[in-house]
Specification:
The complex is a heterodimer of chains A (about 260) and B (about 375). Chain A is of the alpha/beta class and about 260 residues long. Helices cover about 40% and strands about 15% of the residues of chain A. Chain A is built from 10 helices and 7 strands. A 7-stranded mixed beta sheet of chain A has the order 1-3-2-4-5-6-7, sandwiched between helices. About 10% of the residues of chain A have low confidence. Chain B is an alpha+beta fold. Chain B is built from 10 helices and 12 strands. Chain B has a 5-stranded antiparallel beta sheet with strand order 2-1-5-4-3. In chain B, strands 7-9-10-12-11 form a 5-stranded mixed beta sheet. A two-stranded antiparallel ribbon of chain B has the order 6-8. In chain B, helix 6 crosses helix 10 and helix 8 packs antiparallel against helix 10. The mean pLDDT of chain B is about 85. Classes of the chains: A alpha/beta (about 260), B alpha+beta (about 375). The interface between A and B is large, with 41 and 35 residues.
Amino acid sequence: MSILKRNNVVVKGDGENVMMFAHGFGCDQNMWRFIYPAFEADYKIVLFDHVGAGNSDISAYSYKKYDSLEGYAQDIVEIGKELAIKNMVFVGHSASAMMGLIAADIAPEMFKSVILVSPSPSYINDNGYIGGFNRSEIDELLESLDNNHLGWSMAMAPVIMGNQDRKELGDELSNSFCKTDPEIAKHFARTTFLTDKRDILELTKVPSLILQCSNDVIAPVEVGHYMHGIMQNSKLIVMNATGHCPNLSAPEETIATIRNYLHG
Amino acid sequence: MDNNQLHNLSPLAIDFEDFFETSLCGFVITDGEGKIFSVNNRTAEWLNSTPDQFQGKRFSDLLAVGGKIYFETHLWPLLRMQGYFDEVAVELANTGNGKIPIYLNGYERKGDNNQPLFMRFTLFKASDRRLYEENLQIAKQLAEAKLNIEQKNAQIREQFIAVLGHDLRNPLGGIMSAAQILARTEINERDERLVNIIQSGAKRMYEMINNIMDLARGRLGGGIPITPIVVELEKLLNQISDELKVAWPDRQIESNFEIIETVECDPSRISQLISNLLANAITHGSAETPILFKAVVKENLWEISVTNNGIPIPKEAMAHLFHPFYRKDERSSQNGLGLGLYIASEIAKAHNGTLTVTSDEEQTCFTFSAPLQLKTHIE
């Protein structure tokens, strides 16, 4: 299985400079559908699905490898090597923002700058650090995933339908843009929400733009200030956009902010 | 809205207002980014609050933390990408009434410029439903655990059978050699009869043990192992029918072989299969008519069939015919252990072939069919 197939890599346009988009916990490369077209004229666009998400090769999923963000970061570097990428602009949402920082540490020549959309190095409040959640709340999330309360219908629909020749019915029910194997989703959630990567921030050298939303319950604005305070060469923009996914809720503002940064 | 205000509204408006506020499901309307415009009374009641308390909050604030994170990372993106989501199980935040399980549906209303105008959510209380689902899940887990235990037990039993069969062979070997030595010595007529009984009994026992060992191989491992070589089929088939003719001199076997080619097979296993079919035809078929023993090569297949007349195999028996330990009459031990046809079909399988049966008033026919070229995966 080639790396490009494994991660369902999609390359668009043939600009000289590369802009890679990495989705976070939740959906797949569709997350960028409102954003990347704005950069297609100037950049070669690289989109992909993390293993376990979207149309990636689920059989390549390893509970050992993807037990840490490093496993995912390794994939990003492998995709970069496969496509001979140098000096790219990396745009990572949510958990992928931290994966981008790790990847930039492994292969600095691949990265010109990183754009971190709603990033968080650690989701759990700790001794003055505001991550947004108490440990017990994260445990509650993981527990509800364990009990299969969440997404019960998503996981069960294809089984209940069990109708191979009318697959579209199953797709319809299972909310196809966010289809994930429930076991993998559980594991990804665990990897994402239990990770504390605060220690890598001060080592980060790659120029970065931190895009934080106002009123994001997943990554509160304090997290952006915290990161900006520690990371060299970083710039922080707190957007008017609310929620955790400005790429979907406020594409224009997101595009304009990224553009300003790249041209600035 | 109090009753006085209600009196001043037209009946239709009253009805609609009432419908929105007190329907048995919750309604929530947010702006395109998920900020709450409006929450109906029913939702507020479930959350132990009043509708105005939710103005300006995010929809996900209504949910318990699991659902809150799930909403922001999965459901809200789905609304923007797909325009809707259906029947997602989440829980309301615990604000005094416990975490009420709900089913959530949402859709996005877009304006002319394709921008989201607002989003609507419908909440269905699902406590009983959730209990039912949990019970289903528990039942599924229990059934899986039970099946697991059963499978382990079955495996232990089969291993036991294999070991038992193997260990019985040694003392039986002793009995057989001793009987053979006795048979060669000069003994009186009475003792000779007794030695004969020992020998034929031991031989039957030996065959049964072999069958049991084959069963264990078939069930435990990857089927019955075969050692294929190139065989002149016609010669082999004649040998088999000759042997049976010696054993049953008063029965007729009509052979009809259209074999030109040699085939690749395990000759001793194929002999075992065929003589089992012929012996069955002799024991169960009509004694008045001959048994038809046919072999043909069709394109890439070789086919051997054994046909007899007589009472048809009952319909209800057909389904179990190739199962191990299946016997027509469970009380009778006359037919051995009931492993013959099971082993025959396992031998067919080992040759990438099939063993099939048809049976009606006119005749009963067992057909073995296998490809001429054995696939390479057979060792």
